[in-house]
Amino acid sequence: MTAPKKLFIKTYGCQMNVYDSERMAEALGGQGYVETNTPADADMILMNTCHIREKAAEKVYSELGRFKALKVDNPNLKIGVAGCVAQAEGAEIMRRQPAVDLVVGPQSYHRLPEMEAKVRGGGTALDTDFPEEDKFEKLKSRPKAARGPTAFLTVQEGCDKFCAFCVVPYTRGAEVSRPVSRILDEARNLVERGVREITLLGQNVNAYHGLGANGDESTLAKLIWDLDKVDGLERIRFTTSHPNDMTDELIEAHGTCSKLMPYLHLPVQSGSDRILKRMNRSHTVESYLKVIERIREARPDILMSGDFIVGFPEETEADFQATLDLVKEVKYGYAYSFKYSTRPGTPAAERAQVDAAEADERLQRLQAQITSDQREIQESMVGRTVSVLFEKAGREPGQMIGKSEYLHAVHADVTGIAKGDIAQVRIVEAKTNSLRGEVV
Question: All domains of the chain, ordered by start, with CATH?
């Protein structure tokens, strides 16, 4: 028998890239590849890249330099770059780093088998098109191997919002939603393999508008109710949302669908209306707070999460103070905050930049407030009983770790509980990034 070829995938960035990496591994599995955790053992290395972070492309080239050295010991090693940096840089990647054999954009990874065959034959392969065919349809079958109790499932890609700081519309394209039937088929497949919680993914997931079963246009709320009927699926989450697409029926679903978890990631980016307008966010602080108010009326215990950009071009101290005020008012259980960095080709890149030291200082102040609020919310969980989906063994003998319905990491000493079980746990201690509980 021919020994399987080994595939090493390094994934950067968002949850959608995690999902994409899984599907790329499945696509190459049909070409005889099995995954390895060690790049030195690999016959193919794929870097699934993200363009959100600062100097993303330069970090990719730096990593490629390290992977290039592995070709000295293994001349048959093939190196590929996928994802958003691949889409943005295209053929420039091969020009700057000739060791790269394959470049594929996020809309073309279903073509990996043909591209792999080409590079195995001694050529190179480049595909950063936005093909008309549905990549998910090309990869609709998934292997039946067992997997963990949680999974991501992409339902929507691309974005039509064109925020001034964001490259997603240029690297992922316009908004496209998958048909309901194919999402349900994939969800059932995941449940058959042991999955009990699914997180629906999209760059703008609550703008989902896929084809429904009756030929009509579905919505994210309708999709959630369709998934609610899937036997064995116990929990549903979704990310990432835009405030303008939080519809009445989606807000209502948070209060009435028992499988939809009481956690919502709803990025606002700034607490200043002036900066929001310059960001082209198309919402105001007032409209955002009204959405939060309505969500909390529907589900009073919901835990909110958000995104913030500090030091956006032209941001003043007063603008930043408005962001701090918003954070204090909402009290986020989680929040992701970043110092603005330019993305070539985006409108904000051409504007006057905030002094880097001043932006750093603002970011530290914002993160201190977020950390304080997060700690307060974690402390408030002590004494409460939560539902925990256990995902893996803990560091201590007899200990298991899982996630509460609020996405808090919870560890507990357990007896007779296995990975994938859901149990009621009373929280007895709040730690910095997790909670300790006792199974009740």
Answer: 5-127 (3.40.50.12160), 135-380 (3.80.30.20), 385-439 (2.40.50.140)
